[in-house]
Amino acid sequence: MLVYIHVMLLEILIVFNECHIILSLRLMELICWCVDNDDYVNNQYCFQFCSPRVTVAAYTIPHPSLEQVNIRVQTTGDPAREVFKDACQELMQMNRHVRSVFDKAVAEYKDEQKRKEEAEEEELKRQRDLFGSMDIENN
Amino acid sequence: MVTKAEKQFAKNFNIDDLPDVPAGLPPHLKAQQTRVVSKNNAPAHTASAIYSGTYVSSTEEDDNVKLGNFYDNFKVDVVSLTKTDMEFDMIGIDAAFANAFRRILIAEVPSMAIEKVLIAYNTSVIIDEVLAHRMGLIPIAADPRLFEYLSEHDQANEKNTIVFKLHVKCPKNRPRLKVLTSDLKWLPNGSELLRESENKTSKPKTYTSFSCSQDSLPEFANNPITPCDLDILIAKLAPGQEIELEAHAVKGIGKTHAKWSPVGTAWYRMHPEVVLRGEVEDELAERLVNVCPQNVFDIEDMGKGKKRATVAQPRKCTLCKECVRDDDLVDHVDLGSVKNHFIFNIESTGSLPPEVLFTEAVKILEAKCEAITDF
User: Fold this and answer.
1) Measuring CA to CA, how many Å separate A52 from each of A48, B53, B345?
2) CA B56, B94, B97 angle in degrees (round to 5)?
């Protein structure tokens, strides 16, 4: 598996200029075996590692019945472990941001609904008063 | 001879300021980056960029992969919100996040469901195991955040178990009787069934060991635990038949069994985009409006007996491609989806409101990222 990945990397890197090929010889690698992780968490690592420090970020699942994920991070020189941790931290921040924006939107929606209901109630009351006065006039 | 003005111009020259240098990506690459194109054979450009250099442009303004842009551009619009259903838009987020939230909502947000059914008496036509299975599928309106998980080594107590009792009998001189979830009674003091013990001199034991009553907790004092709907049919009893049982509900997640899933379903779709190329007029406009089953298009009167088709409700589009099946219309309609605009739907079973369910799902994903960091 690793040799295959290397071959793929070389194929990809050849598309770029010679500088990349020379640079790849000095890259650090991090291969992590993370137990009990599901697909949707790893998909975000690919998304998350779109940063200048990372040249390759990928994952494989050795077998679907094993709860194992093989994550590979290849950096431009920084320690791959630190880059990986930074990505997880950033993911947490993004999730917190999603939560705060969502809570704000729900609160705004509820306030709007309450205001709408109050306006409707006031309108109904006004209609009832008008109707009542008309009845009195008729009588 | 180079003049002073020419030197000043050369010093301040920037190639991006030239009028014919385009800012950002070319339009076709921009569309490729942000849209899924719905072709006749297959959707195209479905993948999102996983490499920071995939779309390199002269200016960095439109780079939506950058984290700063995410914090600025992410937006949530609530479309509708009821006690059980919620629809909202998430704009400026990647599909991986939306799918992660959906999967966590379905499989990893906990809820309470009946796990043990102790049947003392059952003369109805429904056999014991089928009756127990039906009991397990009843949604229970209890906040799972107030309870702990029950492991194999734990004793059932007031912190991890909810006890219900069901005792219904159909008298002999009455017509057929329906057993509904309103007949389930909550037992805040715990189990009332006695265990069989070999030593008859010892104190009789029940199936739970509650140290205090559950209705002494502030959350349940004025709010007894009930099933979410009180008119769910459990069984039907003929005259003379009887059911007497006790049910224990515990906390679980949908990955273990679907009965613990707190959502009826949670699903999302990308916001559809329908663009008319050129003018679609008169008879062609009529055909376009008639061919769409979702009423996406509308007729606009232009005066002098002329008519034109417009896209009135693109949100309703389900990308069924009925409009591009027509050979005359296929050149006039462009179908697509916005890659970072998700219409999210959550249908709660009733244990928690849908907006709380989504917040809990995001918290679970946060906890996963935190757990991975500690290695």
Assistant:
1) 11, 9, 36
2) 145
Please give the CATH number for the structural domain made up of A2-133: 3.30.1360.10
CA distances from B162 to B158, B248, B296 (A): 7, 6, 49
A39: nearest CA partner in chain B = B100
Query: Does the distance separating the beta carbons of B368 and A94 come in below 8 Å?
Result: no
Token pair 């002269």: residue: B58
B62-to-A137, B65, B68, B90, B130 alpha-carbon distances in Å: 67, 9, 12, 19, 58
Residue B42 three-state SS: coil
The enclosing H or E element of A1 equals none
Please report residues of B whose CB lies closer than 8 A to that of A37: 368, 372
> Phi then psi for A22, rounded to 5 degrees?
-65, -40
Interface of B with A (CB under 8 A): 48-52, 65, 67, 70-71, 74-78, 81, 88, 90, 93-94, 96-97, 99-100, 103-104, 355, 358-359, 362-363, 365-366, 368-370, 372-373, 375
- Look-up: residue for tokens 């209901």? A117
Spell A97-116 as b/e; 16+ CB within 10 A means b: bbbebbeebbeebeeeeeee
What residues contact residue B153 under an 8 Å CB cut-off, 6+ apart? none
Measured between alpha carbons, how far is B192 from B186 in angstroms, rounded to an integer? 11
Q: Is B112 helix (H, G, I), strand (E, B) or coil?
A: strand
B77/A102 Cβ within 8 A: no
Q: What are the boundaries of each domain within chain A?
A: 2-133
Q: Find out whether B260 and B253 touch, Cβ atoms under 8 Å.
A: yes
Is the domain spanning B111-257 CATH 2.170.120.12? The answer is yes
Sign of CA dihedral B46, B51, B57, B61: positive
Q: Which residue has the tokens 């990893």?
A: B108
Alpha-carbon distance A130 to B119, whole Å?
63
Q: Do A103 and B359 count as a contact with CB atoms less than 8 A apart? A: yes
Structure token pair of residue A127: 């209609």
Do B76 and A109 lie within an 8 Å CB cutoff?
no
Determine the Cα–Cα distance for residues A8 and A14; give it in Å rounded to an integer.
10
Query: pLDDT tens per residue, chain B (375 residues)?
Result: 778 787 777 877 776 667 766 666 677 776 777 778 776 677 787 776 554 555 655 444 444 445 566 787 888 989 999 878 899 998 888 788 888 898 899 998 999 999 889 999 899 988 898 999 989 999 999 999 889 898 877 778 888 889 998 999 899 887 978 899 999 889 888 888 777 666 666 667 788 888 888 878 787 887 788 899 888 999 989 999 999 898 999 999 998 899 999 989 898 988 898 888 787 877 789 888 888 998 889 888 878 787 878 888 898 898 888 888 788 888 888 888 888 889 998 989 898 999 999 999 999 988 888 787 765
Instruction: Tell me the C-alpha distance between B79 and B87, whole Å.
Output: 5
